[in-house]
Amino acid sequence: GAFVGWKQGRDTLAHQRNVCTRLLQHWQKSLEASVWAQWSSNVEEVKRLRRVAAKVLTVWENGRLSSAWARWVEMADESSRLRRVGAKVLAKWEHRGLSGAW
Q1: DSSP 3-state assignment of 102?
Q2: What is the overall mean pLDDT for the chain?
Q3: pLDDT at residue 92, as a whole number
Q4: What share of residues in the chain are helix, strand, coil (percent, to 5)?
């Protein structure tokens, strides 16, 4: 009678608790897995953005360096040209007296 009914009720309740506990554990593990996957994805995105930023910075720095180098080369070429022209003018002035004697 009463004991059998009580035992069946207790067994049913224990079974329901067990099912609910397993379901909650499954949900918790799923949530943890989802959170972990999202965190991992975010970390990879941050790493990717850092690599992109480093490349952009490198290109920008190289562009500045390249521009400065180009200006220096241009200035050096112009300085060299002016020295050659100056040397020619000076040579003509020095030899002007000699060529006038002929």
Answers
A1: coil
A2: 89
A3: 86
A4: 100, 0, 0
Please, how many CA atoms are within 13 Å of residue 26, restricted to the half-sphere of its CB?
6
Closest C-alpha to 49, from 57, 60, 61, 59: 57
Structure tokens given for 11: 């067994």
d(CA 57, CA 51): 10
Residue with tokens 């006038």: 100
How far apart, in whole angstroms, are the C-alpha atoms of residue 85 and residue 15? 104
CA distance 50 to 52: 5
Please name the residues in contact with 39: beta carbons below 8 A apart, sequence gap of 6 or more: none
